[in-house]
Amino acid sequence: MLRVEEIDLYYGASQALRGVNLTAEKGQVTCVLGRNGVGKTSLMNAVVGQHPVKEGTIFWEDDDITNLPPHERAARGIAFVPQGREIFALLTVEENLRTGFAPLPKSLCHIPDEIFELFPVLRDMLGRRGGDLSGGQQQQLAIARALVTRPRLLVLDEPTEGIQPSIIKDIERVIKHLAARGDMSILLVEQYFEFARDLANTYAVMDRGEVVLAGNADNMVEADVRRYLTV
């Protein structure tokens, strides 16, 4: 469903991505791994339209979306959970969820019941401000807000960062459930190797702006991947 072909991305004169290729298939979890600063977030920003690419092409459902702005990609079913969550601290949980209505037709502007089945804690916190939630609860809210948009591609940038182990397990369960539905591609950036290994169907390892290892998770050589994760 998603094909990234030979993309280059720059910040001024500094090149962040070099000839990157990536695919994310429906019903599968594609994990992008690597140390800090190797281009993982830049790749996610390119996919969701937060930063333009200089060369290469991004295809979504066989359409070239390379030059589409973020809101048009959202309307086509691409949702982004950024690193650091970026929830609205002064809005309530319900108001945060309702911001997901922006790319939707009026007929879909309601919060699906599935949101509270996946994240039961949010039902009891609808009236609380986002900034009053714990880090783990904010991460659940950020994922739930993305799911309100009814995505067909869910992009998650380091969802385990700064999260307590019990909520990491909850997030893992949710991602497995969403992938098992078979109607969504999931693109996951992660440094926590065990979390990525247990979820991934396919993987790509980045170093210095390039993909240096990639393949099916069943054939992953753990030692080779870990070599690119250690500092």
Report on the architecture of this protein.
This protein is an alpha/beta fold. The chain has one domain: 3-Layer(aba) Sandwich (Rossmann fold), CATH 3.40.50.300. It contains 9 helices and 10 strands. Strands 6-7-8-3-9-10 form a 6-stranded mixed β-sheet, with helices on both faces. It has a 4-stranded antiparallel β-sheet with strand order 2-1-4-5, covered by helices on one side. 41% of the residues are buried.
Query: What proportion strand?
Result: 25-35%
Encode the helix/strand succession as letters.
Answer: EEEHEEHEHHHHEHEHEEH
Shape: globular
| Secondary structure category | alpha/beta
Number of strands: 10
State the CATH class: Alpha Beta
| Main pleated sheet | 6 strands, mixed
CATH architecture: 3-Layer(aba) Sandwich
pLDDT < 50 runs, ≥5 residues: none
CATH superfamily: P-loop containing nucleotide triphosphate hydrolases
